[in-house]
Amino acid sequence: MGVLRKIYLLLFPLIFAGCTEAFMPDIDTKPVLCLNSLITAGEPIEVSVTHTWLYTDEEGSRNNQVHDAEVSIYANGTKVGDDYLPQECDRIRIVAESPTYGSAEAEVTVPVSAPVELVNWDAEITGSWNWNKTEFYYWIGLRAKITVHDPAGIENYYNFSYKGFPKNEQTDDDMDKSQVLFNPGQFFYEAEPIFSEHISGLDEISGSSSFGFTFFTDRQFSGKQYTLNIQLNNAFFEIIDNGDLVLTDDMLDCGFILILSSVSQSYYNWSNYQWNVENGILGDLGEIGMVDPVWGYSNVSTGAGVVAAQARVSYTINLKDLLKSEISGQ
After folding, report:
1. Which residues pair with 181 in a beta bridge?
2. Taking 60 as the threshold, does the pLDDT of residue 22 lie above it?
3. Which one, out of 62, 184, 221, 240, has a CA that is 20 to 30 A from the CA of 131?
């Protein structure tokens, strides 16, 4: 049980992180192992093991999955099985051994979740529309305040995220069926200035914004508290009635899940690097040779991949009463 025989493919943004950016070897250098894992407190640990490749490799040779690797996971120095659930403060070390590509390892400590409270929230119907009495749309806006109480004495890193519930998975077969759907809308980044703390003066002059970046540190409120201003626009609830729909209260049971994660420094550093490459002025200038290139970030021994960790606190905002009142009043 101490050795993971199955290599999981991860469905999160760290997948293949650093497998090409951080690996710039001489032409004769062999590929090395690339490890990626986002460890979440209370959830099984999943690891992706691949190998690096050169940009000059032919397209058909870039199948970089590693099938002969054995992965071992250690929690606080003790080897654990693939059913182990990491806890906050656990020190997790991941070691991969491949006869073909050698070895790689990385270590990360699972952060302690900060005390968080949903201070208040307000949701409103911002518009409605129907087409031929068969399709009904209700647009929804949300404003919420979330206060983070930062633990004193250590440097802390955070990330905000959100999703809608229930999770809608509409297929082509559903197009002719009566159904209800909920989309959680778009995040309004400008409502919260702390998401811009990583932006330099040069980035601001060049027009860079915090769009797409919801990580932040405790630099401005170390050991104190900070209240996030969260705004979601253009969420919508859709009713498709093909003549056989009986709308019940359960069908109106939908809304937002707001998530505040305490994250490892490795997760923050990798995300900050990605932002600089894609949105920062130094990344743009580096691509055209005006400044030194922005090198990739990795905390893996081979310099390829990222092993990160997080502990999450979430709050659910249910829109059932709001929608019920709006629909019954029409």
Report:
1. 238
2. no
3. 184
Q: Which residue type sits at 71?
A: V
Geometric angle at alpha carbon 54, from 51 and 55, rounded to 5°: 130
For residue 124, what are its two tokens?
């409103």
Confidence (pLDDT) at 197: 86
Residue whose tokens read 């170390």: 222
List of residues 6+ apart from 92 with CB closer than 8 A: 39, 45, 73, 74, 75, 86, 107, 108, 109, 110, 307, 309
Which pLDDT band holds residue 284 (cuts at 50, 70, 90)? very low
Average pLDDT over residues 196-218: 68
Which residue type sits at 324? K
How many whole angstroms separate alpha carbon 99 and alpha carbon 115?
45
Element (H, E) at 285: helix 281-287
The DSSP result for 15-52, as a single string, is TTTTTTTT----TTPPP-EEEEEEEETTS----EEEE-
3-class SS of residue 200: coil
Q: Is the dihedral of CA 190, 140, 228, 265 positive or negative?
A: negative
This model's pTM is above 0.90: no
Gap between the Cα atoms of 54 and 20, Å rounded: 7
Q: Using CA atoms, how far apart are residues 56 and 176, in angstroms rounded to an integer?
A: 48
Span 95-115, mean pLDDT? 97
